[in-house]
Design goal:
The chain is of the alpha+beta class. It has 17 helices and 36 strands. Bound molecules: guanosine-5'-diphosphate (GDP) and magnesium ion (MG).
């Protein structure tokens, strides 16, 4: 499949609620186009696209995969995305790399939560879209009912271009409303033109009229002819409809069955006829990396090369692969290019298109293409690749922040090193997966979009790098502080033959405001503690603060004043004063009304109106405090503050309360006093851990 012209390429991202049949649709198109000898099936584990062991095991897509389909001398690059909420990052990259979104919905359940979510992502990028109503062979599938649902949920002008012939098990073909032609399909998906079934006449007339109305509305000349009852030129209608799709004025609705292959070849014809070619798109907008000046690149093979690295993958055989959308120019093997985001040169080794486990080598790729480039050295997701002579930098891809964290430990102690490098490798592939070391709790934390995401990533770590992990909830970084001043006197004295130890201090502790940290005051007059030992006193206090007297958490927000003490001309030493100061701190601390502090986060929750009561109730149960509410379209935005300890599993709770419709972000806000009852539990837990 070498040598396509820019105008013969179509880049399509399939997006939907999980299970609507995207992967099956792509498999069927691959098979019908003659690109594959076998017809891959998700249920039989023979899908060409879902080839990752993690995908096979769960029988769902986890990665965005590419399938180039050759049809009518054109090339359709299908980007199949995962539908499950946790893999939203994959949907975002696919939409960014494609030129149009193919929203797949089921003929039975119609619009689902995931449909609304992905529709929103396509909105963010202002992508044109087409709806494919799948599974019309199933019992209770109803095309017109689903059309009604779509119109209820979305504001776009949704217009059917087809009507199904036959229902459920008898679903056998489609009527093309614009061309007024009908087709049936055999078991292999081959089409045959037939008469429009008589029973459909009324529906065909009604929906054809709707379609024509929507088209002619956009073109004065056609409108005039239409109103005067003249015959409309079918080429003109096609042209105007095509423009309307590309400009997102009309969202066409088509139908079929990926399982029986009815309606699929006609759908591929439709893709070629109505989906935008990269050459028809506006020039890509970016910046000159040095000056920041806004510049553009026309979608033409004759421009200088530019493209976006939208995904990186580590392949066990070829090493790192960079999936790249080319916006302008062309690339060939051995070409020197420039990564303008990193400011470093790169060399193209080979170019190919990965199709499942297979790959197809290319000798050249032009503007509009989506390809994989192996062995790039510095390029990561979101980087712009361009010609060295004419650099440009495109906007980065925006990803949501991870919302769910766990602490990880390697099962076998020897794997500590492998864990660090393995984690950063898998994190590099997925910008919605982060890994950090929490120095305060001394834990390795991994964060992702949900439980399933984190579980898939740890499984991948095991498969690729051989490290098995134990997961546990992250420890909360509690701290200790005091609420009133207190003093302590401590004399450290040891006489055991030879030289003894002697240090004596009087220390006063005072609470400081939240976030103030620590202050040491030297208030010694007349040399009660000699100068040279004062740093040792401060050090002793700081050390004792590292593991607080209450439960071993760091002490914070206190002022410690050394105001008196005593020494021995021979036996005093730095060590003796350090010990005395540590003990004095612990004593004074326990007399100063000590309390635990806990991290508080501010959460911003987006939920559909109807879940507001439940979400607020749940936040209240989590010791949350509602800060405000504000409508945002059909959603409500709730702002609240709540203890981090209560919010650790919020990603899971919110999803179950809102059936997946709610989203949230959270941010560290401050430290606050833990209520007494809670504090007792924390202290008890800490003590029993220390005993272990
Ligand atoms: N009856 C029927 N089942 C289908 C059809 N398309 C897909 N399926 C089934 O629906 C399930 C989910 O399909 P899949 O392609 O994995 O959906 P995805 O999550 O959108 O990729 C699988 O069990 C498929 O066999 C269809 O047209 N008709
Ligand atoms: Mg899938």
């Amino acid at each position: 499949m070498n040598g396509y012209k820019v105008e013969d390429i179509r880049n399509v991202a399939l997006i939907s609620h999980s299970g609507a049949g995207k992967t099956s649709l792509v498999e069927t198109m691959l098979f019908l186009s003659g690109g594959r000898s076998r017809w891959g099936k998700v249920d039989e584990g023979t899908s060409i696209l879902d080839h990752d062991p993690e995908e096979k095991e769960r029988q769902v897509s986890i990665n965005t995969s590419i399938a180039p389909v050759n049809w009518n001398d054109c090339k359709i690059n299908l980007l199949d995305t995962p539908g499950y909420f946790d893999f939203v990052g994959e949907v975002k990259v696919a939409l960014r790399a494609a030129d149009i979104a193919l929203v797949t919905v089921e003929g039975v359940s119609g619009v689902e939560v995931g449909t609304e979510l992905v529709w929103g992502y396509a909105d963010e990028l202002d992508q044109p879209r087409v709806v494919f109503v799948n599974k019309l062979d199933r019992e209770n599938a109803d095309f017109l009912k689903v059309l009604g649902q779509l119109r209820e949920h979305f504001d776009e002008q949704l217009v059917p271009l087809q009507l199904p012939i036959g229902k459920e098990a008898d679903f056998s073909g489609v009527v093309n409303l614009l061309a007024e032609q009908a087709y049936t399909f055999d078991d292999e998906g081959n089409s045959e033109e037939i008469e429009i079934p008589a029973g459909l006449d009324d529906d065909v007339q009604q929906y054809r009229e709707e379609l024509l109305d929507a088209i002619v509305e956009r073109d004065d000349e056609l409108l005039l002819m239409y109103l005067e009852g003249e015959e409309l030129d079918s080429e003109a209608l096609k042209r105007v409809l095509r423009e309307a799709v590309v400009e997102r004025d009309i969202v066409p609705v088509l139908c079929g069955s990926a399982l029986t292959a009815a309606g699929i070849t006609t759908f591929m014809d439709f893709i070629i006829d109505y989906f935008p070619a990269p050459s028809e798109l506006p020039a890509a907008e970016g910046k000159e990396p040095e000056t920041g000046e806004e510049i553009t690149r026309a979608p033409s093979a004759d421009e200088s090369f530019s493209g976006l690295a939208f995904k990186t993958m580590t392949d066990p055989y070829v090493g790192r692969l960079t999936l790249t959308r080319i916006y302008s120019g062309r690339i060939t093997p051995q070409m020197q290019i420039f990564n303008s985001a990193k400011g470093e040169p790169e060399e193209i080794d080979r170019i190919f298109v990965p199709i499942g486990d297979d790959q197809e080598e290319l000798q050249e790729a032009v503007a509009g293409e989506i390809v994989a480039i192996p062995k790039l050295q510095v390029s990561t997701t979101g980087d712009t690749l361009c010609s060295t002579e004419a650099p440009i930098i495109y906007p980065d891809i925006e990803f949501p922040d991870p919302v769910y964290s766990v602490a990880v430990r390697p099962e076998s102690r020897g794997d500590e090193d492998k864990l660090g490098s393995g984690l950063s490798r898998v994190a590099e592939e997925d910008p919605t997966f982060h890994t950090t070391r929490n120095r305060e709790t001394n834990e390795q934390i991994v964060s992702g979009m949900g439980e399933m995401h984190v579980s898939v990533m740890t499984q991948r770590l095991k498969r690729k790098f051989g490290v098995s992990l134990n997961l546990s909830p992250p420890r909360i970084a509690y701290r200790e502080t005091i609420r009133r001043p207190a003093e302590a006197h401590y004399r450290h004295k040891k006489q055991s033959g030879g030289r003894g130890q002697f240090g004596e201090v009087d220390v006063r502790l005072e609470p400081m405001e939240r976030g103030a940290g620590f202050e040491f005051v030297d208030d010694i007059f007349g040399g009660a503690v000699p100068r040279q030992f004062i740093p040792a006193v401060e050090k002793g206090i700081r050390e004792a603060m590292g593991e607080g007297p209450m439960a071993g958490y760091p002490v914070t927000d206190i002022r410690a004043t050394l105001f008196d003490g005593g020494y021995h001309p021979v036996d005093s030493s730095e060590m003796a004063f350090k010990i005395a100061a540590s003990r004095a701190l612990s004593q004074a601390f326990m007399d100063a009304a000590p309390v635990l502090l806990e991290p508080i986060v501010e959460v911003t929750v987006h939920v559909p109106e109807q879940f507001m009561g439940d979400v607020i109730g749940d936040l209240n149960r989590k010791r949350g405090q509602i800060l405000g509410m504000e409508p945002h379209g059909k959603f409500q935005v709730i702002k609240a503050r709540a203890p981090a300890a209560e919010m650790a599993r919020y990603a899971i709770d919110l999803r179950s309360i809102t059936q997946g419709r709610g989203t949230f972000t959270s941010e560290f806000l401050s430290y606050e006093i833990v209520p007494e009852q809670e504090a007792e539990k924390v202290v008890e837990r800490a003590q029993s851990e220390q005993e272990e």
